[in-house]
């Protein structure tokens, strides 16, 4: 129940090193002591005691009381002082320490054991009355605040008045007598506030502090923090009681915090702050400006007050030795608290330090070079999502931000430019050299050219898988979606963002990493794809089993994805090619045609265009598998809406505007996402899929002829629910293939497969697999259809769902493994049972999400596919999943 550390304690019970038993602080203190580092002796009361205390009537049982008495005796023997001894008192600190460090809990009480008598003893033995009375007033102040619950402002006020009356600036200017007078005042504050005197009995003080640490586990603040950070409520906190060492014993004493490497850059340089003649809380409280640890850091900052290296060379030398020992022992960057008492160094805490993405990458790679860790451990240590910060230009962290509104961080990176309110304006302005931000209520496929022309996209509506978000991520354009503070007036071409009135042409900046919309141009810094990134990626690639492909539909995106390491295309959404300004008219003629003959006429215009699209892509992707999906979206989405569009169409077809409008009205759908889309288009209008299959095969044959090497086309039929749909459409694809091969005198390999994006397809996967050589899980639609939640409308209500714990995370971002995951697993099993060598992949947005990727590894998918900028994230996540 109580573990001793330091002094000549044994440290041989493995439970003492178990953070769930002794907490992070306790386990590490024991570990430091056991490797011979200078740790003031002390003891840890276990988390189990805390849970027992909280579950019972909040009293301390006799077992605990006698274990603590023994443990105090251990400290007394080690330091040669006695707790409560009026002539030479032992003083202790009492600190909380859960397994996971947790702001919100009681932190620290220092100098416990002081009272009106022992303070005189401390003054005598230290030969420094000022130090003794300063320590006592700190104790009364801290104990009254954190244990007794007296408002700390009352004490600070009293101290300020004393300083003002005497014309002092710093606390260190107060004399022993002035501190003594303040202590009396502090004690009468306690008497007035509580109607009881400040406790003088050191035993009562100790048990009061232990109880306060236990109780702090159950405070509202701590509970809220645990809920927000997924920390279980049944872990409890440990209590650490430790002999005091004093950083406030004059100018040969000091206290500080340090990192063994720079947590911002990862540079191998000691990094930290210290204060001479101070106790721990002074460094964080900001009363005095802390000084630099090293001479180099002081000089680089142009600061005057001496660094620790210069002011206390011996203690600093010892600290540097300890830093190296700790890094060697823990094999990671450490975050440390220390105190120097009259020239002697003492260690008070160590733990793995928090770090930026850049630092995490550099440290992981450096530590492999230094022989501290293996490549595998380096791969494990870097958070894949953190790579995102490194791949896009980011806002200069030191720049000022005037934030107008905040939306969803839909696609990362920073973008700045002039506001434009429609896609055509975006294109025109960017052609004349302006940088523009496209601001829309929401985007539709018709806006693609404007999104491409823009630096970034801002929408008032739509979630993380809305059209704007998906397309922006695919293009690598920063995007903030669903910013409800944005309202647009198309007529006056003005808008309001937050409380700011703006007009087209005004400048704004987007931060796609946190969803902020800012006024004006905020400066950016370029991504640093330094050598460390490449090195870590090579290690990750050696360790992963799954392949990583990309979702891409232009040669540029394909090229970028290959630079990021993509090993093929997992999803080419051919509809994106249909919205190109040059051909939307032909697409509309095809859709609005009355009969097959009319449709075929329009499709003839589209064939050469599609063939050119595929040729461009295949030339970049030679030798690699390329999944091309035949037309998927509801025809509804292509319909003209503006009068001008109808007039253009009338000119092109010779049909009247009224006729065209009537036809468009007939094609209107109430629920297009469950309407005339996916393979239903291929079944009802087979000529569309025929044209697309022909374009694909002609393009592959052409690339095969020109470069001697073709990609492997994998032709994918979307939204299949039944085996018969796939059977019919695969026969169509095979027939077109044979026609083209005969015409070209050239054969190429190809596969035909389907998406699994409807629950019925997952259920019937065993039958469907008879007709398809691969399955690609379209988890965007599979999530939408399984949950019955519209992917385009969910932003409005999913956030509260996540807050209330109904979903752990947005299911369109991170796969609902419990629910949708079952369908994926079942379909994979049933598909393999029919066709053991069936190729299995995922191409929904989840293919770029590390938690979902781990699930894909577990169910044995062959590959994941993600938008180009997410490819490195997926490579690292796939490696971690395989470890
Ligand atoms: C899907 O549904 O998961 C998918 C990849 O297709 P889309 O996002 O184009 O509907
Ligand atoms: Mg889909």
Automatic annotation (TrEMBL):
InterPro entries linked: PEP-util_enz_mobile_dom, PEP_util_AS, PEP_util_C, PEP_util_CS, PPDK_AMP/ATP-bd, Pyruvate_phosphate_dikinase
Positions of the PEP-utilising enzyme C-terminal domain: 530-881
Region (Disordered): 1-25
GO MF term list: pyruvate, phosphate dikinase activity
Primary enzyme class: transferase
Keyword entries, A-Z: ATP-binding, Nucleotide-binding, Pyruvate, Transferase
Cofactor(s) in the UniProt record: Mg(2+)
EC number from the UniProt entry: 2.7.9.1
A matching Pfam family: PEP-utilizers
Signal peptide span: none
Enzymatic reactions: pyruvate + phosphate + ATP = phosphoenolpyruvate + AMP + diphosphate + H(+)
Domain PEP-utilising enzyme mobile intervals: 435-515
Domain Pyruvate phosphate dikinase AMP/ATP-binding: 22-55, 65-365
Family assignment from sequence similarity: Belongs to the PEP-utilizing enzyme family.
Its biological purpose: Catalyzes the reversible phosphorylation of pyruvate and phosphate.
Protein name: Pyruvate, phosphate dikinase
Lineage: Bacteria, Pseudomonadati, Pseudomonadota, Alphaproteobacteria, Sphingomonadales
């Amino acid at each position: 129940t109580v573990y001793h550390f330091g002094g000549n304690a044994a440290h041989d019970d493995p439970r003492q090193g178990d953070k769930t038993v002794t907490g992070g602080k306790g386990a590490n203190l024991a570990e430091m002591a056991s490797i011979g580092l200078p740790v003031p002796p002390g003891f840890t009361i276990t988390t189990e005691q805390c849970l027992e205390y909280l579950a019972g009537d909040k009293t301390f049982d006799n077992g605990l009381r006698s274990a603590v008495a023994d443990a105090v005796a251990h400290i007394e023997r080690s330091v040669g002082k006695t707790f409560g001894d009026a002539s030479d008192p032992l003083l202790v600190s009492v600190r909380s320490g859960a397994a996971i460090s947790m702001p919100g809990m009681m932190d620290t009480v220092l100098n416990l054991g002081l009272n009106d008598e022992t303070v005189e003893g401390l003054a005598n033995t230290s030969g420094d009355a000022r130090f003794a009375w300063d320590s006592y007033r700190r104790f009364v102040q801290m104990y009254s605040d954190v244990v007794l619950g007296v408002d700390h402002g009352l004490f600070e006020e009293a101290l300020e008045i004393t300083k003002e009356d005497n014309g002092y600036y710093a606390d260190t200017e107060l004399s022993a007598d002035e501190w003594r007078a303040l202590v009396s005042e502090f004690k009468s504050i306690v008497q007035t506030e509580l109607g009881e005197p400040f406790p003088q009995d050191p035993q009562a003080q100790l048990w009061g502090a232990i109880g306060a640490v236990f109780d702090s586990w159950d405070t509202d603040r701590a509970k809220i923090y645990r809920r927000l950070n997924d920390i279980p409520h049944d872990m409890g906190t440990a209590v650490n009681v430790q002999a005091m060492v004093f950083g406030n014993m004059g100018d040969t004493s000091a206290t500080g915090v340090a990192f063994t490497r720079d947590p911002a850059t990862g540079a191998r340089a000691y990094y930290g702050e210290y204060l001479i003649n101070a106790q721990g809380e002074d460094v964080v409280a900001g009363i005095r400006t802390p000084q630099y640890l090293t001479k180099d850091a002081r000089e680089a900052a142009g600061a005057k007050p001496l660094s620790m290296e210069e002011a206390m060379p011996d203690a600093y030398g010892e600290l540097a030795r300890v830093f190296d020992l700790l890094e060697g022992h823990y094999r990671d960057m450490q975050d440390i608290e220390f105190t120097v008492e009259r020239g002697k160094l003492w260690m008070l805490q160590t733990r793995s330090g928090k770090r930026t993405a850049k630092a995490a990458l550099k440290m992981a790679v450096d530590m492999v070079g230094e022989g501290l860790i293996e490549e595998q451990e380096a791969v494990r240590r870097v958070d894949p999502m953190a790579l995102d910060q490194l791949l896009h230009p980011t806002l200069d962290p030191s720049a000022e931000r005037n934030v107008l509104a905040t939306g969803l961080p839909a696609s990362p990176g920073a973008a700045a430019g002039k506001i434009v309110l429609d896609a055509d304006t975006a294109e025109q302005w960017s052609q004349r050299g302006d940088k523009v931000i496209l601001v829309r209520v929401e985007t539709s496929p018709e806006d693609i050219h404007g999104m491409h022309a823009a630096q970034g996209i801002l929408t008032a509506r739509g979630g993380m898988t809305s059209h704007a978000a998906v397309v922006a991520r695919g293009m690598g354009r920063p995007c903030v979606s669903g910013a409800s503070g944005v309202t647009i007036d198309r007529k006056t071409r003005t808008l309001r963002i937050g409380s700011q009135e703006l007009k087209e042409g005004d400048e704004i900046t987007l931060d796609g990493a946190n969803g902020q919309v800012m006024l004006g141009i905020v400066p950016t810094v370029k991504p640093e794809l330094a050598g460390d990134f490449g090195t870590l990626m090579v290690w990750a690639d050696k360790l992963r089993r799954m392949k990583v492909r990309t979702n891409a539909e232009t040669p540029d995106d394909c090229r970028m994805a290959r630079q990021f390491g993509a090993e093929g295309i997992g999803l080419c959404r051919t509809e994106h090619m249909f919205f190109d300004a040059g051909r939307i008219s032909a697409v509309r003629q095809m859709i609005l045609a009355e009969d097959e003959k009319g449709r075929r006429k329009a499709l003839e215009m589209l064939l050469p265009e599609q063939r050119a699209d595929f040729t461009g892509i295949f030339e970049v992707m030679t030798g690699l598998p390329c999944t091309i999906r035949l037309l998927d979206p509801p025809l509804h989405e292509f319909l003209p809406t503006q009068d001008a569009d109808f007039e253009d169409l009338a000119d092109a077809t010779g049909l009247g505007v009224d006729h065209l409008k009537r036809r468009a009205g007939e094609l209107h759908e109430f629920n297009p996402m469950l309407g005339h889309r996916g393979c239903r288009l291929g079944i009802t209008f087979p000529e569309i899929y025929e044209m697309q299959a022909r374009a694909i095969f002609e393009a592959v044959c052409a690339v095969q002829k020109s470069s001697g090497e073709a990609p492997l086309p994998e032709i994918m039929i979307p939204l299949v629910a039944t085996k018969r749909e796939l059977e019919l459409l695969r026969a169509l694809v095979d027939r077109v293939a044979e026609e083209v091969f005969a015409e070209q005198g050239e054969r190429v390999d190809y596969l035909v497969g389907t998406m699994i994006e409807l629950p019925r397809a997952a259920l019937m996967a065993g039958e469907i697999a008879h007709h398809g050589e691969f399955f690609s899980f379209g988890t965007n639609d599979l999530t939408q259809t399984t949950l019955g939640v519209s992917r385009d409308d969910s932003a409005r209500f999913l956030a509260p769902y996540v807050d209330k714990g109904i979903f752990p995370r947005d299911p369109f971002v991170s796969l609902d493994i419990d629910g949708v995951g079952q369908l994926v697993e079942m379909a994979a099993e049933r598909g393999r049972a029919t066709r053991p060598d069936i190729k299995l992949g995922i191409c929904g947005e989840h293919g770029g999400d590390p938690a979902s990727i781990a699930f894909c590894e577990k169910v044995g998918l062959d590959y994941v596919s993600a938008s180009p900028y997410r490819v490195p994230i997926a490579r690292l996540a796939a490696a971690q999943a395989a470890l």
